[in-house]
Amino acid sequence: MFYAALDVSLRSVAICIIDQDGKVRLERSVPSEVPDLVRCLREFGEPIHQVGLEAGTLTQHLTYGLTEAGFDVVCMEARQVNAALSAMRNKTDKHDARGIAQILRSGWYSRVHVKSVESHHLRALLSCRKVMQRKCIDLENEIRGLLKIFGVKLPLRLSRGGFDIAVRDTIESDPALSHALLPMLQARRVLFDTFTELDRRVRKAAHADPVCQRFMGVPGVGEITALSFKAAVDDPARFKSSRTVGAHFGLTPRRFQSGEKDNPGRISHAGDADVRATLYAAAMGALTRSRRRRRANDRSQEGGALGIETGGQQLLSRVFADLALVPATKEKGLGPHCPDRDPAHAENHQHGAPRAH
Question: Are strands 2-8 and 12-19 parallel, antiparallel or unpaired?
């Protein structure tokens, strides 16, 4: 029984093949392309039981390529592998491949789920939208900062196209300032149009997906939250219980227990930070809507009787309340804002950045 380990870098891959006793049988470095890896593994001449590699940027490409070639590929959690390899005195690609092979042989690893191609396409769309949004915010903040030097203070909140109009009206009477800021303003306009188009595609994809439509039936969940959650979960069957989903996204507290000490800590912050932030935003939106609905029911009933929700709504409010009370406010972009927008819009509204409707 033979085990093959891959230490993957951008241009090359260090391969180490060991037998069931841990003896090294082959060590080689090949280009990080699927055909080269398949050729090297098949030239070994013996059937390989498993092929192991760390989770990384090339994981999806290499895993699907080797699986299609007939190999049993194991993707290992990078933190566990890094902790095991840290005991080695010298760090090289060759030594890392040896260590990964021994971890694979011993079975002391956590297998990482490799997401489907569809999920990666959705994540790519969401990432492109996020990048354009951040660039727009950066340019707007830079323009605001430059205008402050000349005593110009733009309003805190500006509509979609209001920022461009407000800046042009301010600098048109100053030729020198216009000469400096107009090119930056034009670049911001192009980025904003690109962001608007990507935002439209994201929302269109969410409305076209039946799973996302069911997610959006939950109070507080909009298109961004629904699509982000679906892309991150990918295959619900990989979770044994719904309780483990919160731990997967880093929403459960850490725990340090040793002897008489048992100290629960802050949330683990593991997993996708963007998904964690959108879930927090959805929880805050659900709580806000729940309070508004409750106040409306109070006003509509004589004697100030409390409005009664259905059992499902009460359970949902309780779940979102527990999620919103998690001390995750240190996450970048968190804050109470509209549930149909992603968390980064809190900063947008403060600085007049583009809104996504």
Answer: antiparallel
The amino acid at residue 85 is: L
Average pLDDT, the chain: 82
pLDDT digits (tens, 9 = 90+) for 235-269: 988 888 888 888 888 888 888 888 888 888 888 88
Render pLDDT for 2-41 as a digit per residue (tens, 0 to 9).
999 999 999 999 999 999 999 999 999 999 999 999 999 9
How far apart, in Å, do the first and last CA atoms of the chain sit? 57
99 phi/psi in degrees, rounded to 5: -65, -40
Whether pLDDT at 318 is above 60? no
What fold is seen in the domain 2-106? Answer: Nucleotidyltransferase; domain 5 (3.30.420)
- Check residue 299 and give its pLDDT: 56
Q: In degrees, to the nearest 5, what angle opens at C-alpha 139 toward C-alphas 135 and 142?
A: 140
In sequence order, the β-bridge partners of residue 3 are 18, 50
Cα 163 from Cα 203, distance rounded (Å): 24
Residue 111 Cα distances to 54, 72, 165, angstroms: 10, 12, 53
* Of 191, 201, 242, 245, the residue nearest 223 (C-alpha): 201
User: Looking at residues 138-158, what average pLDDT do you find?
Assistant: 91
* Residue of 126, 315, 112 lying closest to 203 (CA atoms): 126
**Separation in Å, CA 263 to CA 252, 255, 259:** 14, 6, 11
Residue intervals of the chain classified under CATH 3.30.420.40 are 2-106
**Which residue is associated with the tokens 């093949």?**
17
Neighbours of 300 (CB within 10 A): 9
pLDDT in tens, 298-312: 555 544 333 334 444
Tell me the β-bridge partners of 15.
Answer: 6, 28
CA–CA separation, 270 vs 178, rounded Å? Answer: 46
Is the overall model pTM greater than 0.85, yes or no? no
